[in-house]
Specification:
The complex is a heterodimer.
Chain A: H1 2-21, H2 28-60, E1 66-73, E2 80-88, E3 91-97, H3 100-107, E4 112-118, E5 122-133, E6 139-150, E7 155-161, E8 170-174
Chain B: H1 2-11, H2 30-40, H3 44-59, H4 73-86, H5 90-102, H6 107-123, H7 127-134, H8 146-159, H9 163-172, H10 180-194, H11 197-207, H12 215-234, H13 238-245, H14 255-268, H15 272-283, H16 290-305, H17 309-338, H18 341-346, H19 349-352, H20 357-361, H21 374-378, H22 380-457, H23 467-485, H24 490-509, H25 511-548, H26 554-659, H27 662-677
Helix pairs in contact in B: 1-10, 2-3, 3-4, 4-5, 4-6, 5-6, 6-7, 7-8, 8-9, 9-10, 10-11, 10-12, 11-12, 12-13, 12-14, 13-14, 14-15, 14-16, 15-16, 16-17, 16-26, 17-26, 22-25, 22-26, 23-24, 26-27
The chains are: A alpha+beta, B mainly alpha.
């Protein structure tokens, strides 16, 4: 009995020692297998994300009331956008401060969906104010207003920002 | 041959393959633009999610040609593949790009797709498949990626052991703005791979002197000089090797290995004192580096060779101390990893915001010594596994949020149901009543229009008589009936007939005006009816919106809830396995380093003992030498004294001989001689 206990204790000690000093090997096949599993999970989670996004849009922003505002850059060189304020019918709906990554994304042709909300059908006043720095380093503030007419379909408005004060610094485009 | 090829492959610089940027081109489609926005922010999950949804909508359209995405569809399809590639979904990215290749597309588009597929296969360590893919490129190539394609092709040839083909391409890329540096370096490696050592060395020498002060160029220069230095050390040309190794920047990523090699070159040339120059610099650096640990033994070795065994022994002793400390650190690090602290630290958000987060990791309490893991952390397998772990963690957080969102949506739907359900039947009842009245009025209006239209063909003036005229007509009719039975004068009868006549006259003569007026009124009525219909439709929409705000959500929300729970379980299990794999890799790496240090420790112990022996022997030899010299000196002094004394004695004897008796004098002289003898 005592001998058995001693052997068991010895095995435990040896296995503990083995676990600490000799780690298991990780094979390429194991890495590949797990990577494929992770890819499958990603595919499924992306599917859930798409389904949920559709459902959310339907539930929270039905097309007959939905309004979305997008921001893009018309002039990509030298201009730095610092902040953006958006008012809808006089009420502030967005106050956004830009990060370096976001600016980089906008300069590379990215379009930022800055606001999604609900409004009644009919006419609405959209007011956009942005703060930035021009290529020469001077502070730069612009303001523009636009009337949007909301119909039954979702209203998509693009706010195109330019860094030059010579032309229109803010352009609106309805989609 | 195989190890040589492997060694050379490890030297091949993948260049741009390691420093990719998002290739997606700007678009004027809002939703594609939004996906690009997320991709440039590095949020590939959101980028794929949005672009997938946009592409799904586009493909579901009856007339996709009218959609704003239509003109960017090829770019969008590429981009989704690209984003998937960045999100390490290589299987899906490969499939997406393959579908473009197999589709009926322009050769320019097809070739770009093949290039991207080849890049994926190369990154996934499938060089043969990458070669098959890249060889399919034929015809027109997009100008902006011409050099990229050529460079990737050359790398694929090198990896597949076809240096001749690679050399041809790389020679043509020497002037490239984007790949010049990498191409120059890889050309040197390819020449060495081909066995043209002299040309390879010349080419690496050229790559090692490329002009430019940007980080990339400096790094390529260092890499070329280091590769060249070690190659020359290997071929037994230490003098030349030192020249190249000394060109490597003192503060660059390759500096430690360069300093180490430079010292070994001096040792090979038996210039032990000069070897101490680079090695002493290196010995002061972070001791976790393998080169520094090697030099901890190298410095005392050089002192030993210079005959300074005492100094050598002291330094071996210090090396031993240092190795002991490092072994304790490694043991603590292994324990920390096995206790799960490594994964805990990896998952910390604040660290990921820092570029040097891997280094900062070691500052966290109980986190492992990450300097030992730097090499491992830079490896492709570890990086892929680590990124997978991060992705799983990010998805886990998303799923947690979605769980809460879904529960909120279910509550929202229930609140809406409770609000609208009792209201809707009442509204519905009123609506039905209004609906029937509206239908009646519209029918009446339609009937009027029909009558008016028929009057254009067959005029019926009486239909357009006014109410007063109709009343008057009934009165005249009553009068006519009465006058039939009354004995009236002709004048009275004529009066009644005249009344009838006036009525008829008015109705007949005003018919056309009245008809015009009636049509005008009908148009006015149409305006009112249109407003009514719009109000009706608006009401129908609102009623539908109210119903749709709570109906039809239960099943999809429940399904989503189930899917989220299922995915969460799978993620938890995958995270456990992925985490365990990372821990195992890290422990293996630390164990490997531990064994190396243990080996160094044994070497240091032996060298220390040997140095002590030599130092002691040298000390004893010096002691013996000194004692012998002292003895010789003593003997010399004694001999000199003896000579002096004997000279004095002789002098005294002579003097005494002259002054006293001869016997007494001889006895007096003998006495000191005896004393000297004694």
């Amino acid at each position: 009995m005592k001998q058995n206990l001693f052997i068991s204790a010895l095995i435990i000690c040896l296995s503990t020692f083995a676990g600490k000093s000799i780690a298991q090997e990780v094979s390429k096949a194991q890495i590949k297998g797990l990577d494929e599993q992770v890819q499958e999970i990603k595919k499924d989670v992306l599917g859930i994300s798409a389904e949920l996004a559709l459902l959310e849009e339907k539930l929270l922003y039905p097309s007959n009331t939905q309004v979305s505002i997008f921001v893009s850059f018309a002039d990509k060189d030298g201009f730095r956008l610092d902040a953006m304020d958006i008012k809808l019918d006089g009420k502030e709906v967005v106050h956004h401060l830009y990060t370096a990554k976001e600016l980089d994304a906008l300069r590379n042709g990215g379009v930022q969906k800055i606001y999604t909300g609900n409004i009644r059908t009919g006419e609405h006043q959209l007011e956009v104010i942005f703060l930035g720095k021009s290529a020469l380093g001077g502070s730069y503030k612009e303001k523009a207003t636009h009337t949007i007419t909301k119909g039954v379909k979702p209203k998509l408005v693009e706010v195109k920002v330019a860094g030059s004060a010579l032309g229109d610094a803010i352009e609106f485009k309805e989609w | 041959m195989k190890p040589v090829r492997l060694l050379l492959f490890s030297c091949i610089s993948l260049g741009i393959l390691c420093f990719q940027t998002v290739d997606a081109k700007p678009s004027t489609d809002l939703f594609f633009g939004e996906a690009i926005f997320y991709a440039h922010k590095g949020e590939y999950f959101d980028a794929i999610s949005r672009l997938d949804a946009e592409l799904g909508q586009y493909h579901g359209l009856d007339e996709p040609g009218l959609d704003s995405l239509h003109q960017f569809i090829d770019s969008a399809q590429f981009s989704v593949g690209d984003f998937e590639l960045y999100y390490r979904m290589h299987q899906r990215a490969g499939r997406a790009i393959k579908s473009v290749i197999e589709g009926n597309v322009d050769p320019v588009v097809r070739n770009e797709a093949i290039y991207r597929l080849a890049k994926i296969l190369l990154q996934k360590n499938q060089p043969v498949n990458a070669l098959h893919a890249i060889e399919r490129i034929e015809g027109a190539i997009p100008d902006e990626i011409r050099d990229d394609i050529e460079y990737v092709k050359a790398v694929i040839f090198m990896v597949n052991g076809r240096p001749t083909d690679a050399i041809e391409i790389l020679s043509g890329l020497q002037g490239s703005n984007t790949h010049g540096g990498f191409a120059a370096y890889n050309l040197g490696i390819a020449l060495l791979q081909l066995g043209e050592d002299a040309n390879g060395i010349l080419q690496l020498d050229k790559a090692g002197t490329t002009s430019g002060s940007d980080e990339g160029t400096r790094s390529i220069r260092d890499k070329a000089n280091l590769a060249l230095g070690y190659k020359l050390l290997e071929t037994g040309e230490p003098e030349l090797a030192k020249k190249y190794l000394d060109r490597v920047q003192l503060n660059g990523a390759f500096s430690n290995r360069a300093l180490l090699g430079s010292g070994w070159a001096d040792i090979a040339l038996k210039r032990y004192d000069r070897a101490l120059v680079p090695w002493t610099i290196l010995a002061k650096r972070n001791v976790t580096d393998r080169a520094v640990q090697e030099v901890l033994l190298g410095v005392p070795f050089a002192y030993g060779k210079l005959g300074l065994h005492g100094k050598s022994a002291v330094l071996y002793g210090r090396a031993l101390e240092s190795f002991n400390t490092e072994l304790s650190k490694l043991d603590a690090s292994i324990k920390s990893i096995q206790d799960g602290k490594f994964l805990e630290a990896l998952a910390r958000e604040e660290l990921k915001q820092d570029k040097n987060w891997v280094i900062k990791l070691r500052d966290l309490p109980e986190a492992p010594e990450t300097h030992y893991l730097m090499h491992l952390m830079a490896s492709h397998d570890f990086q892929e596994s680590l990124q997978n772990y991060f992705d799983l963690e990010e998805m886990r957080k998303r799923l947690l949020k979605w769980e809460v969102d879904i529960a909120s949506y279910q509550e929202l739907v229930n609140i809406r149901r409770e609000y609208y359900k009792p209201l809707l039947p009442v509204i519905e009842k009123k609506f039905q009543l209004l609906d029937s009245r509206m239908r009646l009025r519209i029918e009446q209006r339609d009937s009027l229009e029909n009558k008016l239209q028929s009057m254009l063909i067959a005029p019926r003036p009486e239909f357009l008589a006014t109410v007063a005229e109709r009343v008057d007509g009934y009165r005249v009719e009553r009068l006519e009936r009465k006058v039939k039975h009354l004995p009236l004068t002709n004048q009275s009868r004529q009066q009644v007939e005249r009344l009838r006549g006036v009525l008829k006259w008015n109705i007949l003569t005003e018919f056309h005006d009245r008809l015009t007026q009636a049509f005008k009124r009908l148009r006015e009525l149409d305006g009112v009816v249109a407003d009514l219909k719009e109000t009706y439709r608006s009401f129908v929409r609102t009623r539908q919106a109210a119903t749709q705000s709570y109906e039809g959500y239960d099943a999809p929300l429940n399904t989503l809830k189930f899917k989220v729970q299922d995915s969460m379980e799978r993620i938890k299990s995958a995270m456990l396995r992925q985490g365990h794999m990372l821990e195992t890799m890290a422990v293996n790496e630390l164990d490997k380093r531990r064994k190396r240090i243990e080996g160094d420790q044994i070497k240091a112990r032996f060298a220390l003992a040997e140095s002590y022996d030599r130092a002691q022997k040298a000390q004893e030899d010096a002691k013996f030498k000194k004692a012998a010299e002292e003895r010789a000196n003593q003997a010399r002094v004694l001999a000199e004294e003896m000579e002096k004394k004997s000279a004095e004695a002789a002098k005294v004897e002579a003097e005494t001989k002259a002054k006293s008796e001869p016997n007494k004098e001889s006895n007096a002289v003998e006495q000191p001689r005896e004393e000297i003898k004694k």
